[in-house]
Amino acid sequence: MKLENKTDIAEFLLLGLSENPELQPLLFGLFLTVYLATVLGNLFIILAISSDSHLHTPMYFFLSNLPFNDICFSTATVPKMLVNIQTQSKSSSYTGCLTQICFGLVFAGLENGLLAAMTYDRYVAICQPLRYTVIMNPCFRGLLILPSLFISIMNALLHSLMVLYLSFCIDLEIPHFFCEPGQVLKLACSDTLINNILEFFVTSVWGGVTLLGIIFLHSNFLLHFENRISWRKV
User: What total of structural domains would you count in the chain?
Assistant: First the structure.
């Protein structure tokens, strides 16, 4: 019989990529380099767009939000892993783990919305160029991002609150370098059927809607180009 702890969960153990002590400095240097390159590269894109008035257009507005979201998503996962490698510790507090899950879901969901918004922006620019500046006004650009942010936040909070009602066993080892929702659910001693259904439903609906929207807009691109080629031939 497994022991349970319903309220006073001390910490999770993030096993990381390898338990070999000789590989820890190499992993630390590798992930630190990748993380710094990600942050600096995305910051350079944001600064380049904000400093050039010619780039203050709807397309570059979405393009500047995407690297910012990328920085936030990386910061939600990588720094904790670097600290664990440097201190030779694998622990992550219960609150810290839930916080990491919440922020990870927010930025992952927001990225889907940003990609869909960027696709719609290109659709309007190509298929309705004369009305582009009228349609893609600052207010409408905000309306394309805010619903995605709101849905992502609500989804993350809902998943985090559902995890709070679970009972966890004593052996809380996560075979990953960050608190991934699916791995956390596997450690629960209580029934996780509702959590799994919720995770599958939200992922399918939100991911499916954005994916279908992107495919639909790209198919309209192709139809628009085909019609333009046919018109030129005539």
Answer: 1
Over residues 214-219, mean pLDDT: 83
> CATH number of the domain that 98 lies in?
1.20.1070.10
- Compute the radius of gyration of the chain from its Cα atoms: 22
Containing structural domain, residue 109 = 4-233
Q: CA-to-CA distance for 136 and 146, rounded, in angstroms?
A: 15
Q: Looking at the predicted structure, is the pLDDT value of residue 6 above 50? A: no
CB count within 10 Å of CB 135 equals 14
Burial class (CB in 10 A: 0-12, 13-18, 19+), 13: middle
Instruction: Encode pLDDT of 59-98 as tens digits.
Output: 888 888 999 999 999 998 888 888 888 888 788 888 888 8
Report the predicted TM-score, pTM, of the whole model to 2 decimal places: 0.81
The length of the chain in residues reads: 234
For residues 153-191, b (16+ Cβ closer than 10 Å) or e, as one string? eebbeebbebbeebebeeebebebbbbbbebbbebbbee
